[in-house]
Predict the 3D structure of the following.
Amino acid sequence: MVKPAKPKKKFFTPDQANAALPLVQAIVKDVAAVAQELRERQERITKLLDLDKRVLGDAYREELQPIQEEFERKKEQIFEYARELDNLGVQLKDPHTGLVDFPAWMDGHEVYLCWRLGEDKVDYWHELETGFAGRKRLSRETHSS
């Protein structure tokens, strides 16, 4: 049996990244909302688990189980959204802030075009090693290439 070939990595121009942005933005909005729910559930689980074990009565144990189950479902939902973005060629970097990277070529080497939830367009890039902290604004010439 022949294994299917791994899909070739997709590279975006700034215009292509911006064209994909409406779909990416919709997915990332969902990711950020679920990430916020996860954070709240984690805080609730932590509070329940931090209670003295002798105080953790049946009512708390009954409350904890569905919260933990829902937490696991929400984590899986984030993974599904990340896979959906990956299928588009986009990498989810931070679900809480809605940060994504679009692989691109610039000056003969691979870089990332960088976008975060709340930004109007893909207007930044960074080297692979520098991450968000190394973001630089795209030049006008880069947008049209």
